[in-house]
Specification:
alpha/beta; 28% strand; globular; 6 helices; eight-stranded mixed sheet; Rossmann fold
């Protein structure tokens, strides 16, 4: 089965959106890195060290990137305050335990560390379903696995009010189909 045509383009646009927010030489955790850790490999020259976790990836070490197969069960296998940056690009909408993963991210971030995430907006659901189910240019399995869609208010509530992040910044991108958000762990 061939890979849906739209996904590489959307991935490229997410990476372009995220890159300016990653401090050079940082230690970064990418949650939901995918089978090939494409994002981590693409930013490898800019970061000191990168770790990727995903239930689909194999344990592997290459240059300054390490991947670990992990199915999230309310715990990330890293010590407190291990990372300066955590990225979740098109992942949070797939995780059943939303509050728990965000609390774990908060725990593993250093004080002043940054969470960078992208998630589909509430307005994207009918569009994504049409692209996947009718036009077959987005992955049906990925769209069926979405547990929720977000808007600014929903993201702010879960990140600031529930998880205690601060410096919440949000914007819609890709014609309001996606949310881009950064939040910082209190220093």
């Amino acid at each position: 089965m061939s890979k849906p045509l739209l996904e590489p383009l959307l991935r490229h646009l997410r990476i372009r959106k995220v890159m300016p927010h990653i401090p050079k030489n940082s230690i970064l955790l990418d949650i939901g890195c995918g089978t090939k850790a494409t994002f981590l490999k693409s930013i490898s020259p800019y970061i000191k060290q990168g770790f990727g976790v995903d239930f689909k990836v194999q344990d592997h070490q290459f240059h300054n990137i390490q991947t670990k197969q992990l199915k999230f069960k309310n715990y990330l296998p890293f010590p407190d305050e291990s990372f300066q940056v955590v990225t979740m690009l098109a992942v949070l909408e797939h995780i059943e335990e939303e509050k728990e993963i965000l609390q774990e991210i908060y725990r593993v971030l250093t004080p002043g560390g940054k969470l960078i995430l992208t998630v589909p907006s509430v307005w994207s659901q009918p569009v994504l379903e049409f692209l996947a189910y009718k036009l077959k240019i987005a992955s049906e399995a990925e769209i069926r696995d979405h547990k929720r869609y977000y808007d600014r208010k929903k993201l702010k509530k879960v990140l600031v009010e529930i998880t205690n992040f601060q410096d919440f910044h949000h914007q819609y991108f890709q014609l309001w189909m996606n949310n881009f958000c950064t939040a910082v762990k209190k220093a």
